[in-house]
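It would be a great kindness if you could assist me with a short task in structural biology. I am sending you one protein, given as its amino acid sequence and as whole-number tokens for its backbone shapes. I would ask you to consider whether the tokens describe a fold that such a sequence might reasonably adopt. The full record is reproduced below for your convenience.
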Amino acid sequence: MRFEKELDEGRAMRGQAIYQSGGHIERLDPLTYHVRSQTGNGAYKVAKRDGVWGCSCPDHVYRNAKCKHIWAVEFSLALRDEVRSRVVIKPLDPQICLYCGSPTITRDGLRHNKNGEIQRFTCKACGKRFVRNLGFERLKATPQIVTSALQLYFTGESLRNVQKFLRLQGVNVSHQTVYNWIKRYVALMEKYLDKITPQVSPVWRADELYLKVKGDMKYLFAMMDDETRFWIAQEVADSKYTHDARQLFSLARAVAGKTPKVLITDGLPSYHDAYMKEYRTNRLDKTTHHIRQITLTGAHNNNKMERLNGEIRDREKVMRGLKKAETPIIPGYQIYHNYLRPNEALEGKTPADACGIEVQGENKWITIIQNASRKHDSE
């Protein structure tokens, strides 16, 4: 029984390798595909009849197994079914209305405050009044200074080191002010970005690592997409072995808008329990395949997830632990990892780029914050 299970896991992983290699799957019609052999000697016909996939390869014909070629086609279909128009988050155009996009805007006096005078505008089309520093109103610091602080902090500097840097720029703020900026803008960006669905692959990974919160041991459970490295969901738990991971799995499904074809985890029982309750179905073609016999090397490893854990651990070391469980630091780092941090494994793209979400502009922090502010004001 265990041998058959290991064979099934091996077929799934080889099917994933065929799908990711590209050029091996040829679509003849919506129900028929040719899948080239990995050895390059010929191809096999994969066709769906009466709702069930079949393949001409010996593994399927003689063993009636769900072969690697069927897995490859299902991986390809799962991604194709989720393909949507590319989401582009653009910088706001200073020559048009921030709310309706109309070019019919007029100057509408100056707003005076202790930091200087700010030009106000009125849109003749929608009647809204606005200023150019949308999202950064009533701040002494400029948008460039605020976003520089965010960038420095999430790339590894402490709050006090960020404060020292700003002081060199002639901006005298406390480390608490820097933290307040982080708290304010992480909440704003999180609410906006949560409404955008990433185009993740059919293979997801989950893992956990310990954190110190107010000196107590906690665990951060995280779900990541295998292909794009997009950090899909996370939650902080009090324990490792008794934690119910169903909330993590449910949140990941809500963010991605689907369930994975393959879920890769370690042998933690809470993962399998959550998989059985959240992702397992009575329909064979809809069931997520759970691989939990991972190793340090070979096809069944979790090295990609461990790399994300290393990123988080490096960030936590600077902070010397978290001060509270409901900290904005973890969701803030999740935003930074997904939308702003280039990934070498993705050839310099961010995970969001790989998922079909493009953030434009020289300063992507400002682009996201101003779009989030405009969306918030219009609701």
